[in-house]
Specification:
- The longest helix is centred in the last third of the chain and has 24 residues, at 448-471.
- It is globular and about 65 Å long.
- The chain is of the alpha/beta class and 524 residues long.
- 36% of the residues lie in helices and 17% in strands.
- The strands form 4 sheets. Strands 1, 2, 6, 7, 8, 9 and 16 form a 7-stranded mixed β-sheet that branches. The chain has a 4-stranded mixed β-sheet with strand order 17-15-10-18, covered by helices on one side.
Amino acid sequence: MLSKFDVLIIGTGLAGLTLALHVADRRQVGLICKKQLIDGASDWAQGGIAAVLSDDDTVESHIRDTLVAGAGLSDQEVTRHVVGHGRECVQWLIRQGVPFTRDAASDTGYHLTTEGGHSHRRVIHAADATGHAIQSTLEGKVRAHPNITLLEHYNAIDLITGAKLGLTDNRCYGCYALDTASGKVHTVAAQHTVLATGGAGKVYLYTTNPDTSTGDGIAMGWRAGCRVANMEFIQFHPTCLYHPQAKSFLISEAVRGEGGILKLPHGPRFMPAHDPRAELAPRDIVARAIDFEMKKHGLDCVHLDISHKPAAFIKEHFPTIHSRCLEFGIDITRQPIPVVPAAHYTCGGLMTDKFGRADLPNLYAIGETAFTGLHGANRLASNSLLECLVFGMFAANDILAQPAPPSPALPQWDESRVTDADEEIVISHNWDELRRFMWDYVGIVRTNKRLERALHRIRLLQGEIHDYYANFRVTNDLLELRNLVTTAELIVRSAQMRHESRGLHFSRDYPGMLPAARNTVLVR
């Protein structure tokens, strides 16, 4: 079966939906979504969007905070580009009807909070469920738009490129996608293809990401010949709820921004001993501090305590966190929250320019899938949704300015030489093995020996997965595992190339920081 679109967007987080709504009045858009429309990381975002909105704040201050967090690797031109369009993008969301939390006493009319690494209150939010408020609002717009076709429960397999078709003009022509309901593979042709699949948090055993965050866009772009950069910089969020029944539940940065204190289980506060900014230090510092204290004292978790604040304040500002913790018997108005670090954000990705253009003509990458140069060695809190908005808008403008490229006839997916899998246990076993050794060997603190061990195991898994992919019909689990293993290799190889400790990459073998900051670029 062949589908044709002017613009094909793979992924339906904030970046993908932003781009879709900016082009849909003038182009036919196809949206590929692995599950339902808002089942992604954007919907889970709690904190908010960092943007200069208050009279007390300045663009220069936001730029400076971003560069400091990025530990010398944030691109100054890109940072100015993104920060400079923050107000415009937030105003666009407000016009769409996003119900941000209001504050009559603020000069903006909205409540602005602060988070780690920020020197001003500049994070606009919708209580503690900002991502859900935004995604729900945009979902309604997308579903109602006559020029947008939703392909829910589809999983993109690989990009269709000129090289794969034997053409001298190597550009992107669309993708093959698995309809997970029927098991059939569809050919999806497009004049412009956009990878907006999010990050790769599920490569780790513990993550704040949803199950869909399996590095799909990064892996597909890499296999198509695109460069990737800075994949060693995986942000571990310091505070994920620690409870045997709580799967991937994030405790927002804003809890610390509003006065939450990190303590050891027997009471003492510990962050001031690690950084003068204490709980408001950037995430990499806080995550390493927690990891240090847990290992030093043999702890399963530490505690985040905001119970000294009035109960009404806590319920007003953190209703989702309050209710979720109550489900596990934790009343955060009276008790501290048990927390541990967890993989949270992929700072590297497919290399793009300021319009979101990847290395392959007609291919774009936006959001967490992309490496734009904004985040450097460590993402500043709440800059991620901002990046999605800015690059979604600029990629849309670039696509609208392009003439329609040539579109050759595309072959159908060939599964004539494969059979149904006989042992699915191979996939689940390899999935579990990969996530465990990535957590153990390529986590918050790394060594050369750990990286070597991880890469050796990755090579073994790649052989098994390649044989499986070549001989059996594709399934959703197989595609995700294939992408995770590819992404894991990129993370480990990038980490091996960085002979220093900078930002989110901390190596015991190279504890110092080199005088010159350079990006890690991998070329296929």
